Amino acid sequence: MTDFFSPYWHPAVATDVALFTLRQGELHLLCVKRRDDGKWALPGGFMQQGESLDQCAARELKEEAGIEVPYLNHFANYSEPDRDPREQVISIAYLAIHPSGKLRLKADTDVSDVNWFDVRDLPSLAFDHNKIAADAQKHLTGLMERKPEIAFAFLPASFTLSELQQTFEAIAGDKYAPHNKRNFRLWTERFGGIGLVVETGDLRTGAHRPAKLYAPNPKLF
Amino acid sequence: MTDFFSPYWHPAVATDVALFTLRQGELHLLCVKRRDDGKWALPGGFMQQGESLDQCAARELKEEAGIEVPYLNHFANYSEPDRDPREQVISIAYLAIHPSGKLRLKADTDVSDVNWFDVRDLPSLAFDHNKIAADAQKHLTGLMERKPEIAFAFLPASFTLSELQQTFEAIAGDKYAPHNKRNFRLWTERFGGIGLVVETGDLRTGAHRPAKLYAPNPKLF
DNA sequence: CCAAAAGTGTTGATCCTACACCCATGT
DNA sequence: ACATGGGTGTAGGATCAACACTTTTGG
Questions:
Q1: Is the CB of B174 under 7 A from strand D?
Q2: How confident is the model over A150-193, as pLDDT tens digits?
Q3: What's this model's pTM, rounded to 2 decimal places?
Q4: Does A76 touch chain B (CB under 8 A)?
């Protein structure tokens, strides 16, 4: 289909993805190194004809980092006319979550490197990507309090309650910490009147009492 | 600035605005009648070079309906390739609130009519605008529970507590209704540890005991 | 005096915070 | 036996739903 009728200006449209994961209990963000100018940036790229924005974001993540994620959702737009000095580019920003820091790095044609960075120590990113990353983290924190189920996206299919609690603490901060452990467990039991998690029946062993393994409560979905 | 470097496809980008107000205690949505095809639609239109998306949404609202609003924020994107049969158009959807149904109708070149519709009885709208409107209403309900301050955008500068409560009931449904009045008032007092509203000192008279007038608590902003 | 809407007191249930305590395993 | 993390009981305070009640105006 061609732009047969359009007397209107068409801007460039790109998706940018803030992909978070936990590594050693700390929140990390995925960045790619642009072959263009050698700068670190959020993964992402220009939209192609015939795809939706969601598809574009998923495609770019796959191309630039060889990665597919269980959570990928739009959270904000960035459209200031001068945010890209070359021409006006609308950035559709996505928040994504990956369960483990293990990813097979894959550099495609536009990208010479891929890496995780601790969110408290990000490099200087291209364009307004530092702001996008900060907004994404703030959005993630709010989402965590509103829809705690997304915590599961950070974890494997089964996990201990301590791991779940550490996930909440790493992202939503001390909200879930003060005299907890007891209270966190009570909260998961009461959650939604139905329980946030269910026991799998399996145990994880270690140099201490074995821990019960849990999975997301399927009745929540 | 011209698109000197862009080997990329550029889609058409438009903003669409779901503007809500209360009339006789019921939630209403603003629609415009397109001169093009005679269909009702959400107000909105194509982005112009040099403006941001926020500016575009505000401009279209002003042009098509002669209206400026206290609340106007992005809430979702719509980008399915076939949502507009003419060419692929990305719609950036905004949620807006206007305090009273009194607006000076203004038909510009693209629009032959403007009107409020009860949200429970919307006409068939152009493109996917019925879905956008439904999503906007759902978003509004959630926002109301998360950030009750936005209720003020539906009201004039001062109001009675009953009016405030009716606003919540119209939008968030029975959540604020069951045996309330007493409980609603207690909730506003406790809100944020500081109170949702402050007394203005004025009264509103009627065929009953006069009601105290209130204003948004300025300490909340 | 009565209709109508404004506005208040209070109780019992529920939820949450905080702290103290016990349990099962590997070394 | 002891270090380590897993896992529970419960008292006291805060919060909230529910119901019954009093107050002030206009007509």
A1: no
A2: 999 999 999 999 999 999 999 987 666 656 899 999 999 999 88
A3: 0.94
A4: yes
A positions 99-138 inside 8 Å of B (CB): none
Does the distance separating the beta carbons of B87 and A5 come in below 8 Å? yes
Task: Evaluate if the CB of A183 falls below 7 Å from strand C.
Answer: yes
- Would the Cβ of A120 be found within 7 angstroms of any atom in strand C? no
Least Cα separation, residue A85 to chain B (angstroms): 10
Q: Which residues contact A216 (CB under 8 A, 6 or more apart)?
A: A149, A152, A196, A197, A198
Alpha-carbon distance B136 to nearest alpha carbon in chain A (angstroms): 15
Q: Which residues of A115-136 are buried (b: 16+ CB within 10 A; e: fewer)?
A: ebbebeebeebbbbbbebbebb
Q: CA dist A96 to A41, A167, B207, Å?
A: 15, 15, 57
